[in-house]
Amino acid sequence: MLVLTRRLGETIVIGDDIVIKIVDIHGKQIRVGIEAPAEISVYRGEIYERIMLENKAAVEAALGDVKAMSDGLKELISNQTVVGHSNDSKTSVGSK
């Protein structure tokens, strides 16, 4: 980790497109301004952590839905049987 000391009004430049500027200092609080391209997402750490937790929960819920659909499809298929072949080699499927 690179650790830098900056004073009010000073900047840090990352790559060609990101500028971090110290815009205000009040006691132990420092206000930071960030200029970055629109395609670069910038979050406070605690917000980013919450987003990651919510994304993980959404993926787990979606995986549960996919498993339930897969199980239902397997049950549906197991309840059907092949009843014969036509001359064009297509299989007809009917219920038991």
Helix/strand order, N-terminal first: EEEHEE
Query: Structural class, please?
Result: alpha+beta
Shape estimate: elongated
The total of helices stands at: 1
**Euclidean distance between termini CA atoms:** 67 Å
In brief, what are we looking at here?
It contains one helix and five strands. It is of the alpha+beta class.
Descriptive account of the structure:
This protein is α+β, with helices and mostly antiparallel strands. The chain has two domains: 7-41, no CATH class; 43-80. It has one helix at residues 45-78, and strands spanning 11-14, 18-26, 29-35, 80-85, 91-95.
Supply the key terms.
two-stranded antiparallel sheet; 5 strands; 2 domains; 96 residues; 1 helix; alpha+beta; three-stranded antiparallel sheet
Question: Any chance you could write out the topology, listing elements then pairs?
Answer:
Blueprint: E1 11-14, E2 18-26, E3 29-35, H1 45-78, E4 80-85, E5 91-95
Antiparallel strand pairs: 1-2, 2-3, 4-5
